[in-house]
Amino acid sequence: MNIPIPSNEKRRLEVLWKYDVLDTPPDASLDDLTELAASICQTPIAMVSLVDQERQWFKARVGLALTETPRDISFCTHAILQPDVMVVRDALLDPRFKSSPLVTGDPYIRFYAGAPLTTSEGLALGTLCVADRVPRVLDSKQSEALRKLARVIVQFLELRRQVKELSAVPIRQRSSVS
């Protein structure tokens, strides 16, 4: 597959790495938000996916055993290029995905919807996405819920990064900063 690369890829990766979230243990809050996305969208699969240089890595996931996939077969690689929710109603009919091993083999994805996880700088680090093994659509309320949950996830990641940065500052310096 052809890998689309964002025009701001270098900066996007720098910011992603500053979040220091890749390859970290599961987080109950993100697990809950992922389960909520699957429930609202009525899909068996949902993920918080972060798109690194060579892979997409799942910080949280429901209904999927995989913890990561190569970037070149990833739906999320395409979704981070979109300003809004990207919907693929039937992956077998989409030339970008019809030959993907994620479509032709396990987990047999036919439907995908991904809301970009866009930072305050406008950088899409990954997606909150849902998937199904049958073709389908999202209604407007489900799409809006996916957008809102994606914003909450970004706020969570930004807060996590700020707390980590602050905890690295010695206590004396923290007092003078506040």
Which runs of at least 5 residues are low in confidence (pLDDT < 50)?
none
Estimate the helix proportion, in percent.
25-40%
Count every helix, treating DSSP H or I runs of 4 or more residues as helices. 6
Helix and strand content put the structural class at alpha+beta
Write structural notes for this entry.
- With 178 residues, the protein is an alpha+beta fold.
- It has one domain: GAF domain (Beta-Lactamase).
- It has helices at 9-18, 28-41, 76-79, 101-104, 140-167, 171-177; strands at residues 45-51, 55-62, 68-70, 86-88, 111-118, 124-132.
- A six-stranded antiparallel beta sheet has the order 3-2-1-6-5-4.
- Helix 2 runs antiparallel to helix 5.
- The longest helix has 28 residues, at 140-167.
Quick description:
This protein has about 180 residues and is α+β, with helices and mostly antiparallel strands.
Mind sketching the topology for me?
Layout: H1 9-18, H2 28-41, E1 45-51, E2 55-62, E3 68-70, H3 76-79, E4 86-88, H4 101-104, E5 111-118, E6 124-132, H5 140-167, H6 171-177
Antiparallel strand pairs: 1-2, 1-6, 2-3, 4-5, 5-6
What characteristics describe this protein?
178 residues; Beta-Lactamase; alpha+beta
